[in-house]
Amino acid sequence: xxxxxxxxxxxPHTVQKALKNLSFSLPRGSCxxxxxxxxxxxxxxCLAAAGILHHEYGGKKEGVVFVxxxxxxxxxxxxxxxxxxxxVFDDAEAQMIFTTVEEEILSAIEHRGLDVAATEExxxxxxxxxxxxxxxxxxxxxxxxxxKQRVALAATLALGNDILILDEPTSELDEHATTRIVxxxxxxxxxxxxxxxxxxxxxxxxDIVDALVVMENGTISAIGKPGDVLADVRLKKxxxxxxxxxxxxxxxxxxxxxxxxxxxxxxxxxDLSYAYGDILALDSVNLIVQPGEFVALVGENGSxxxxxxxxxxxxxxPTLGNIIINGKNTRDCTITGLARHVGLVFxxxxxxxxxxTVNEEVAFGLHNLGITDGNEIIDAALSEVGLAHTxxxxxxxxxxxxxxxxxxxxxxxxxxxxxxxxxxxxxxDGDEARLVLEILxxxxxxxxxxxxxxHNKEIATNCADRIVTMEKGKIISDSCGxx
Length: 483
Description:
Elements: E1 2-10, E2 19-26, E3 31-35, H1 42-49, H2 52-56, E4 60-67, E5 70-71, H3 78-82, E6 85-88, H4 101-109, H5 116-129, H6 145-158, E7 163-167, H7 175-190, E8 194-198, H8 202-205, E9 211-216, E10 219-224, H9 226-229, H10 233-239, E11 267-276, E12 279-289, E13 294-299, H11 305-310, E14 320-325, E15 328-329, H12 335-338, E16 342-345, H13 358-368, H14 375-384, H15 400-412, E17 418-422, H16 430-445, E18 449-453, H17 457-463, E19 466-471, E20 474-480
Parallel strand pairs: 3-8, 3-9, 6-7, 7-8, 13-18, 13-19, 16-17, 17-18
Antiparallel strand pairs: 1-2, 1-4, 4-5, 9-10, 11-12, 11-14, 14-15, 19-20
Helix pairs in contact: 4-5, 4-6, 5-6, 13-15, 14-15
């Protein structure tokens, strides 16, 4: 269905090739999974396979892409290619343009020219298939990241294409929702659909994957049956994350004493409720976190995890109840004032970046705190996350994993006692994800209180001291981490 022959590509205004002489075929009815480190070229490969690179992008292109036996350049435009290929991008929100979930899906169905009855039947079928019944009248822009991914997938399925290209469709999904997507794709494959899947969750998809492609630095390092590829120990570490041993990492000899030891809680959540309009996102939540703890917040998409942590630095103000940070009620604090105590790393680090260099990006937070001569602080923060060599680079030139570490550097430069991270391993391969967790463990050893939102049970079990589980805006369990 899709064949790439000797594809090389260089983005405009760059000299480094994003793809280098890359060739492979996606046979009809097959599922090929592409994985590898961030910055390896996986998304660029998707753009090439969909014909978008050749029709819409500048830069230098070499080689030929065939879709259904025809050179993509022989298709008049992307609309013609869209009759064959449906694509879900890694940034689901970028695909949302309508005011309700139902309208998003309906707009795709209407392209098929079905009558009213058939349209309604297909709409209901897709909403049921993608488990969106309770969300059909909600605005997609007010959904959680994982819920947005399901909406984007539903809209793509509505097109009825024979070829699906999915760029990390489960990166922001919890375990339950990921299992649902696997089931959906399994059924689509049985129906004869052809699937190109970029993912880091190999263990979830292994039963439907016919071939595994590992990319590094714009090239294919390995391609073949999954068992054959994973026989290489180095490649297996990239494909499958191993978080064992992180909780018992040796303590650092240079442990800081920058945070006073206290027996008082560093965070107190008291009867917290919060509503988005008429949607109750948090319902009488109570939580106490002690200084220096490593807490994992887990739960399904939409359970209230992100809403809860946004209260810690007053990005949100309680509808009811109170948040006490280091003895201070957040209602009496400014966002800038709380930044001295709480640092928040967003799920998508790109939402934090706007400066021209890595150095300026880290310096921005310091300037907000009134620190104008912070070169030593910046250098130390970048060194802490292994990015000292990138200080003069444009932040968006960094790989996904490097951008995640830069976001952490921006926060730790301001030396907050509490560091909150929303899904810090999203989109990272096994090696990158472990590196981020090791950095966080070292920060805990230096006295920081670490709170992470994660859908990964292995991370919660192997890294956290406590696992706090949320469901429908409530905390339903609070237990110790792994052994």
